[in-house]
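User: Here's a chain of 234 residues. Predict its fold as tokens.
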Amino acid sequence: MNINPLYALPNLFTAGSIFLGIMSIMFSSNAMFEWSCWLIISSMVLDGLDGRVARLTHTTSKFGVEFDSLADIVSFGVAPAMLLYFYIGGEYSRFGVVVSALFVIFGAIRLARFNIATNESEPNSFIGLPIPSAAILMVLWILLDIKYNIFDADYGYWLLVGAFVLSILMVSNIRYPSFKKIKWNLKTFVILLILLSIAYLRPIEVLGTLMSLYIIYGILRWFFLIIKMLLKTK
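Assistant: Prediction complete.
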């Protein structure tokens, strides 16, 4: 049976994502934290490309979906968790170990639930925070700390608390918008150009702010819906 060689193309992007994730772990273990952060961000770029390449070349497959999930565990679960532990978690003994481990475990649960829920179609919104979003936000927090020393020796545990909150959000029922089916028009294009222009000037600050607002949006929306339901029951 002849196999279309194009089927290897998206899987090469996925393999590249795993490779960068493993490199990030190695860099973290050698205290090269800024390099480790950028490797995870680069891994996310490849992760975003594999699915799009598969759809463009009509080479989507069950193998590709499963391979992509395993790649996400490495690149957005294990790699950020090890980065967190080597960067600050090791200074807080068992607390650092537990938070780092839970990030991987809850990320795996999030991926398993996502794969079950999206067997037939892509969702308009995600139930629970996507693991790439959690990973990238944690990486951005660390990059901001490297640049501005936000979490100094007395407040380093707040970074672990933030990582724990991200872990909980991944397995929560809080919905987050998916931008895969966004409708492109002139207004959207202009907004995107403005954001990209600002991000070019201050990439870490802008991306960190946007991702933090994305997280806060989901939490506030969930609180609003809870209050709305409570008011209806009265």
